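Q: What would this chain look like folded?
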Amino acid sequence: MTRTAEERQREIVRTARTTGAVDVNTLATQLGVARETVRRDLRALEDHGLVRRTHGGAYPVESAGFETTLAFRATSHVPEKRKVAAAAAELLGDAETVFVDEGFTPQLIAEALPRDRPLTVVTASLPVAGALAEAENTSVLLLGGRVRPGTLATVDHWTTKMLAGFVLDLAFIGANGISREHGLTTPDPAVSEVKAQAIRAARRTVFAGVHTKFGAVSFCRFAEIGALEAIVTSTLLPSAEAHRYSLLGPQVIRA
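A: My prediction, written as structure tokens:
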């Protein structure tokens, strides 16, 4: 049976979301079409914001209808995320009160924070709270609210109201996408509210994320690039692209 372009593209998105990535050769075989047809489909899907193309394939963009789980994030780009997290933790400076966002990279930042001096960490993330709960010299404040199953983080008015009561030295923020045009974005409005409130509460904000986040755009915008003191990513983000972000205000560190 010959599939229409729309049917092929739906199948490509479904496969990408299930497996985390697709490659042109496998898709051509799977769909029974030429590689050039698959490349055309991927270009169309990228134009619609559903995938990001890579050399020889593509990966899904997180959107209002699709978001990866924390368990999945803990298996992708892990060495890169560890480097980014270690470099981000070095920006702590003299901060005594810190917000650590939900997500796997922020969790790695939490684990990289120094244990030899007093630190208060505020977080909506159950895994972050768990990782730091027994850390010497670290006091953990877990924000209350509804727990999102995919990311194990709290959201909704309970979370934002509690967060609004704090003045924080530093916020370590993650995002599902960061772009020069649309700023920092995330699929869920409830998560967006928590992130925006954390940035409002903090004197300094650092975004940490791997290269695949750059240029990706999700559903809810919660901050402009200019709101960030620093962006920490890896050397896999080209230096020319890093420079373009730095022109909007933040220091850009490629670890």
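Residues 89 and 113 are 6 Å apart (CA to CA).
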